[in-house]
Every structure is written in structure tokens, then in C-alpha cells.
Design the sequence.
């Protein structure tokens, strides 16, 4: 997934701009969405490597997006960082982490801390996907290798008899 983007989702334009500015130094491809519906559409189209998602948005909330993503095989392992401007309460924290969210951050966001978390989660996700692809490739190679008929190799214990001269009674110096 070399061109996977980090999708930033918030219903406030100024927050989107601030988050994009904070993440720009990382050099990753960034995408944006202003609603939960729009975020789901982009995630389902593929090529999203991490989701930065506002919790409270009109219509489809951030938690609704995560709930849906976790039910779909192609999106269930995408790391999600939830953002909230209303503080952390026990119910939100329990629900978010119960859904498998990677982190829950309060606004305003510390740009340095955000970059550190995003870099770690994004790179870890990419490495995980690369390993999964390598495993699929190796399994296919093994399957192809075992599916094609090959001549049987002799067992390691099979001994090849030594070749002997026809006349073993003749002394070695006389055979030359």
C-alpha cells in the first residue's frame, strides 16, 4: 500500500486545516472528509492507511464510522485515532477502546505528539500489510510447488552400491 493516505475527518474546516498543517512535515499523502458518510465512502474505496476521526459530527458520528469499519473485513484493521474537543469521559473512552481505536486525543492537538503517534501507527500498519502480502505470496509459491508433479527424490537412507572392479582378487599394483 505505497500510496495509502491518512484520512482526516472533521466537520470544521479550521480543524482540518490545522491537522493537515501538523501532519504535512511527515510527507505522507493526506486526504480529508467533512462528514462520517464521506469518510466511509473514502475508506471503502481503499488506499486509506490511517484515519484521524472527529468523534462528534452531525449525522454519522466518528464512533458510527468505527463501528461500521470494524464489521467490514477490508477496513477492520485500519488504525483509527479519535479526536474530541469535549474532553474524555469514561463512557467515550470505554466505547472507543472497546471498538479497537488506536488512540483517543483531545483538541487542541499537540502537533509534535500527533506526528509521533501518526508516524508510528501508519508505519506499523504498512509493515503489517507488507508482511501479510509476503505470507500470501509464500503460500501461493508453496501451493504451486506442491501442486506440480515432481519426480520423487530418493530417501536419504537409500544407499548407492559402490562400484567395484570385476576382479577384486588382483592386487592393486597389478591392476595398472
Sequence:
Amino acid at each position: 500500500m505505497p500510496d495509502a493516505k491518512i484520512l482526516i475527518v472533521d466537520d470544521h474546516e479550521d480543524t482540518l486545516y490545522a491537522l493537515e498543517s501538523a501532519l504535512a512535515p511527515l510527507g505522507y499523502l493526506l486526504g480529508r472528509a467533512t462528514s462520517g458518510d464521506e469518510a466511509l465512502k473514502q475508506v471503502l474505496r481503499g488506499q486509506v492507511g490511517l484515519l484521524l476521526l472527529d468523534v462528534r459530527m452531525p449525522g454519522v458520528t466518528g464512533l458510527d464510522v468505527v463501528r461500521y469499519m470494524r464489521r467490514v473485513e477490508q477496513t477492520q484493521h485500519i488504525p483509527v485515532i479519535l479526536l474530541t474537543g469535549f474532553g474524555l469521559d469514561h463512557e467515550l473512552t470505554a466505547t472507543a477502546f472497546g471498538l479497537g481505536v488506536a488512540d483517543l486525543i483531545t483538541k487542541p492537538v499537540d502537533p509534535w505528539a500527533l506526528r509521533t503517534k501518526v508516524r508510528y501507527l501508519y508505519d506499523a500498519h504498512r509493515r503489517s500489510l507488507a508482511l501479510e502480502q509476503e505470507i500470501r505470496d509464500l503460500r501461493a509459491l508453496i501451493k504451486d510447488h506442491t501442486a506440480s508433479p515432481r519426480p520423487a527424490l530418493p530417501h536419504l537412507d537409500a544407499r548407492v552400491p559402490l562400484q567395484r572392479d570385476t576382479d577384486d582378487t588382483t592386487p592393486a599394483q597389478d591392476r595398472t
In short: The mean pLDDT is 85.
